[in-house]
Amino acid sequence: MNAQIIKGTIWEILEVLRDLYDADVAAMFLVNEDMDNEEKLDILEDRLSRIKTIYHERATPLPEPVSTYVGLDRSDLQKCLSEIRILKFCFEEVQHPLISEGRLYPERNGKIWNYNYKSRPAKWVVFPNDDKNSPILFEGLTAYSIKTTKEIFADSSTALSRYPSISHLNAIEMGVTAQCKMVCFLHLKDPDDKKKIIGLVKIENYQDRPAERIKFSKDSTQTKEAKQYLPLLARLVKKSKERYKERAYEKLYGGLEFLEVLKTLDLTKARDLNREIYRQTRHLLFVLKRNEYVGHDDIFERVTNYVDDIASILKIAGKKSFKEILEEYKKHEDLILYGIKGYRDHFIHQFHVFVLGYIILNKIGLKIVAESTDQSLRTIQDRPDHKIHIREDNVLRAWFLTAFYHDAAPTPSSHHF
Length: 417
Prior knowledge:
417 residues, disordered C terminus, 2 domains, two-stranded antiparallel sheet
């Protein structure tokens, strides 16, 4: 069974579970065990910052272990990573057909969860549990359920308000979902270790529906039937991870070495533009490392989105977006070139060239490269030009165009920078 068939089967099971409860949405969150420690640390620091802010606003002491973690610097916090887990949204949610048709929640424009590849549902930190099963503001009810190993059933807004972490999130309206009114969490357990929870299925309604409350309970007919599907779903999840590794970025293209070198760059004194490119590049490689996107087409889609973002950061404009240009070039390759024996993909090669050059430029120092180029242009034989002034962002723009056009060869003059 290949990865796409497994993914489709998982999606169908989620739809069966949603339909059992006649719910608005069903989605799956999994504990990610393939995440790079640096990414894990970024997520932990971000979550701690959010938690610290809300407790400060309420003039309330921070609970353990948050109070301990907040006082640590990054190097010491890294030593605590084995104590926490990261829970993240996986695959794709399923929603009620009436929502897709615009007949239910028409103000949501056919999509109850409004996200794209830039704004995905949050990654939650599963903190170590204490004996009291204490909730932490802003930890999220999904993470709380995994932390306490408790399947949670809330059949109304009143029931949800008993959990401060979720009631606070609902109160501030996150923008990804509408305010949840009814929810249940069904745990997925490792097929080879029943004591180990690998994730959960989250089933939600966004209106209080008294007639349906009985469904959102631990002993309901719907819950008992839903639990019969969970062992199969857990086994498919585990199988999908094996299959995904066969079609992973590193397996198909290599390139994760760049991530390790990127980590060594010190951009604390760099300009904001350069730091943002670094952040985006590092994040993309984190995503590819944990096999969020697998197979040629999915990887191409994600990397072209990245390239489009970098072009926007560098303010490189044109008649078409870079994403459109690269998609047209790929169609050209698919049609004419992929039949050639020994032919290598050009696009990922161009991406690798850009990242390699970006690393080298920053190792040398963008300021040094800019000044050296400036000096060369001003003293070139027979053509001195004292009006030219090359800035650091010009170096990055020139390298971006060089890297992504050196094989594709559209006309650079169609862009201004």
